[in-house]
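Lecture 7, part 2: worked example. A protein chain together with zinc ion.
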Amino acid sequence: MLSSTLSRFGNTARRQAMRAPSLIARNLATMSSSSTKDPSRSSIGSASSYLSNVSNFKIIESTLREGEQFANAFFTTEKKIEIAKALDEFGVEYLELTSPAASTQSYNDCKAIVGLGLKAKILTHVRCHMDDAKLAVQTGVDGLDVVIGTSSYLREFSHGKDMQYIIDTATEVINYVKSEGLEVRFSSEDSFRSDIVDLLNLYRAVDKLGVNRVGIADTVGCASPDQVAELVRTLRAIVSCDIECHFHNDTGCAIANAYAALQNGATHVDTSVLGIGERNGIPSLGGFIARMYAADKEYVKSKYNLHKLRDIENIVADAVGVSVPFNNYITGYCAFTHKAGIHAKAILNNPSTYEILRPEDFGMTRYVAIGHRLTGWNAVKNRVEQLGLPLTDADCKQITNKIKNLADIRPLSLDDVDKLLRKYGQAKEDNSHHAILENIDTPDQITEW
Ligand SMILES: CC(=O)SCCNC(=O)CCNC(=O)[C@H](O)C(C)(C)COP(=O)(O)OP(=O)(O)OC[C@H]1O[C@@H](n2cnc3c(N)ncnc32)[C@H](O)[C@@H]1OP(=O)(O)O
Ligand SMILES: O=C(O)CCC(=O)C(=O)O
Ligand SMILES: [Zn+2]
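Predicted complex, written out as structure tokens:
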């Protein structure tokens, strides 16, 4: 299908794009001969491919642009500055800000954030229009992320312009931004519902103008990782500039799509804290970091101050009036809680058995829950050891059975489990420990001790 599409585009493009799969084939050969000595790494797909940038990417953090499009978002200037500083400390390479054309305050906020002198480059996101571009340049930002819709939906129902108009205006805007010495990215909104020939023609034209990046945007969240892989691989063969990607999460693929894009030659990924954005948002910074850590832990640890993640999420959650989700990547309250007995035993022997992320690397701690009916004697024994009680394995097994019976009524708090263990330990001194277990029928009895 790609081949027939590209034949409409031209011979050079077809030859370039068709070269990409052979590069992948070559890498498959490399992969199969590479060793997978590190047991913490996945045994498939861990070798780097020729096109892959999973160990060489940049984050364009868009909480202060896409995130401001989240239904609940209202950021004061002070809050924007706090978020910008926190993200800068975390180490993101770029901050993307709302267009200064949006409102007077948006314009002033751009200038205020530029004035902070952060390490991260400051971008603002503008329509493909000279008025917006001129206003943006006045704010002193490092670069402009220029966008215009290319799908027939947006050409007909949003801006109403045809492809020739888009190319002409893009040329004017890009030449202007470059003449001001700023970085410029050109992106096609709704790329995955755009005509592939139109799209590639447009990207090739703006690449020739010398843009720093072209952008692919899955504006409605319709793309799957294989579609992303195909488009990015094709684009990689057509343009020489960097490739940024922006994925919405309407159908749950945003992070996987970002990963597929990097594997196939994209260089920059858009994120927002907690994934906030238009509708249900884009890849969350934390989720994207989790994915990339699993792919190349040392690279991610060397670039980003991972211990800052939780603070940043709390700042943003608080600012937009939401809670950090219980199952949030890395910082969700149960992200490092192990419950089932089988898991608990193995985790206590070696955390890598059931953890791909090391909680310590993110300033988080592991927790093994024991006061429930799925517990096992190894987990209980571990707690006994933590409390320094001189109990045997047989004791631990008996207590575990009691905990299970009680937890069939309701789960026990750790406090109650500890009370039970201590009381049993004391009773062992005068050999009355069996009676302790026999005399308890409900968790409430322990709570009342
Ligand atoms: C997919 C995305 O998230 S893209 C980024 C979205 N970001 C924003 O919209 C930023 C916040 N937006 C705003 O503050 C306002 O929409 C503004 C200031 C940009 C424009 O406001 P208004 O002039 O009142 O226009 P309105 O919002 O009703 O419509 C959008 C206008 O931009 C035009 N337009 C839409 N997309 C583009 C584009 N990418 N490039 C150029 N023009 C565009 C539309 O045709 C329409 O023009 P019209 O006034 O001739 O009808
Ligand atoms: O500028 C871009 O690449 C993305 C714009 C956007 O937010 C989107 O298309 O969803
Ligand atoms: Zn978006």
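Strands lie at 58-61, 94-97, 121-127, 143-149, 183-189, 213-218, 242-247, 268-271, 337-338, 367-368. Confidence is low (pLDDT under 50) at residues 10-40. Keep this in mind for problem set question 3.
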